[in-house]
Amino acid sequence: MIDNLPYRQVGAEDVRPGGLMCVADHASNFVPEGIELGIDPKLMNEHIALDIGVEGIADRLSRRHNMPAHIACVSRLVCDFHRREDEAAVVPTESDGKLIPGNIGANVEARLANYHRPYHEALGKMIAQVKPRMLVALHSFTPSLETSDDERPWEVSLLYNQDDRAARHAIRLFAEQGLTVGDNQPYSGKQLNATMDRHAEANGIPYCTVEIRQDQITTEAGQSRWAMMLADVMGRVALEV
């Protein structure tokens, strides 16, 4: 965390209104001092703790492709910013079959006050400042789940709830790149779309929630490749919405 904030913002200064803006809810595996999750430390480098590869892409989009970014600085296991305040999983006690014993009986209100609310309040203010034409929410997904042997063939997926304007264009453009594209897979934005529901759909802002399969972006080379491709595809999508 920087200055004890659960987020950091990159590239918002002197940006022209009407461009693209990036949001990365699950970019960090950081656990603040005083919080004990009670799990094997090795798990903090796995998907249950963060979306692997996303932070590097968000930084590159901001610094190299002129897309300001709002980036989480706290692990989803401490507080999941991509959940509503009233959802039990906002402070998860289980993830992908792994028990999070330190969160059983946790002070959820304190987690919301210290992390969730400041994160979303700052995101809302940044959106008002940047006035983006379109929001790009970045996530990554595992090639398979610990609790299932089913492989996930999609290299990239687009999630959406009610507003699918941008997602439809992005699905087509990624497919034209020769990629296997998931349409609201491996899970649906109609069930899991909290941040974009709040900051995009509620305000009539077009958005793309982009999920990239982790094996595509575990290296810096992969992150650079995807940042370049996202900047191109999302820029073209923004012209269509």
Describe the protein.
This is N-formylglutamate amidohydrolase. InterPro entries: N-FG_amidohydro, UCP029730. This protein has five helices and nine strands. The protein has 241 residues and is an alpha/beta fold. It has a single domain (7-238), classed as 3-Layer(aba) Sandwich (Aminopeptidase). The strands form two sheets. A seven-stranded mixed sheet has the order 1-3-2-6-9-7-8, with helices on both faces. β4 (94-95) and β5 form a beta hairpin. α1 packs across α5 and α3 packs across α5 (220-238). The chain starts with 6 loop residues before the first strand and ends with a helix. The model has no long low-confidence stretch (mean pLDDT 94).
Strand line-up of the largest beta sheet: 1-3-2-6-9-7-8
Helix/strand/pairing category: alpha/beta
Rg, please?
Answer: 17 Å
CATH topology: Aminopeptidase
What's the CATH C level? Alpha Beta
Distance between the termini: 35 Å
Largest sheet: 7 strands, mixed
User: Looking at this structure, what is the CATH superfamily?
Assistant: Zn-dependent exopeptidases
Overall pLDDT score = 94
Enumerate the spans where pLDDT stays under 50 for 5 or more consecutive residues.
none
**What's the helix count?**
5
CATH architecture: 3-Layer(aba) Sandwich
Number of DSSP-assigned strands: 9
Sheet-strand content, in percent, reads 15-25%
Domain module tally: 1
Shape: globular
**Could you estimate the helical fraction of the residues in percent?**
25-40%
H and E string = EEHEEEHEEHEHEH
